[in-house]
Amino acid sequence: MNQELLTKICNDINSCPNWRSGSLKCGRDETAIPKTVEIKDTQKILLITRDPSNQANKLDDVTSFENSFFMDKVLPILFADYETEKAKKDMKYFEDFREKFLSLFYWTHYQKCFPGKREGAHKQPRKKCATRYLKTEIEAFDPEIIICIGAKAVDHVIKEAVERVKGEKLLQTISKNGNNHVTYSGKKIPFIALTHPSGSNNGAKNNPSYRYEETIKLIREKVREFE
User: What is the pLDDT of residues 22-36, one digit of tens each?
Assistant: First the structure.
């Protein structure tokens, strides 16, 4: 990890010119603030998700106790021994897993700000943040493995990588889970793709082709190797 460069990138994200100027051309919600997480030299795994949730935006924190996406979706995907209901009742239990998460994972997003809602539905993120920041984040972090959640993030990481088949999509990538990699800065990095865990994506999650539960099992096995 080039911690100095990664810190600079995060500072650039947090002072993004679109946010400073109030511009919405990048696709962010008018209330949205860029989100980054703490950088630690123990982190080895890169987690990339679609965008910060509406809750994370309101809380100004993606790993807080009150952020249900982190508590109910992210942590159960990553840690086999994590119990959501216990975490909801026991702050210390949650904080122990939060600290374990932060010691292992650098977490970033395809779009760095919450994109907002339209007619009650979550707006799809735009690629401007990913185009500006994501490749340099990957190269600066130099991960041992990348876990990528959601089609937008998966497709972009594949397109930016070296030695990938042009036009490969989420399902094709998922089919290679367990024997898959992307190449950045000459380094082959193990790569796992997962369809998005949101309730609105139940159609894909329940489709055997997306290997949802099988992929979660694989992710947990890989994470355990770094604990």
Answer: 888 888 888 888 899
